[in-house]
Amino acid sequence: IQQTQIEKHRALAEESDKKCDGLQLQLSEIEHLNRSHKQAAAVHSTVEVRLNRALEEVERFKAQLNKMKQTNKMHFEAAKLLSFTEDEFMKALDWGKSEAQRGADK
User: Which long-range contacts link 43-46 to residues 24+ away (Cβ below 8 Å)?
Assistant: First the structure.
């Protein structure tokens, strides 16, 4: 009877060892998953920060582009207002010459 009880205890001890080994393996896997999760969260956070910075930079570029467009539009409008056609320019030159001749004729 004692021998049977010893064998039962041995069997229970072996079973407990196997369960313990299995739980140790599961614990190791969980710890690995936790580390991986923390790394992924850190990478996600870094990517999010970079994305926000990139978006801010895009907004700055848009603002600069709009300013450039406005400046170019103003320059274009000013150039249109100041521009002379060749005929108008020639008329102005001819008028200047005729005025100069009139003054010389007097």
Answer: none
What whole-number distance in Å separates Cα of residue 58 and Cα of residue 62? 6
Helix H or strand E segment including 44: helix 2-82
Please tell me the distance from the alpha carbon of residue 35 to that of residue 41, in angstroms, as a whole number.
Answer: 10
Rounded CA separation 19/16 (Å) = 5
User: The whole model's pTM is what?
Assistant: 0.54
66-104 pLDDT tens trace: 999 999 999 998 887 777 676 788 788 887 777 777 766
Backbone angles phi, psi at 76, to 5 degrees: -65, -45
What's the one-letter identity of residue 17? D
**Tokens of residue 73, six digits:** 């539009």
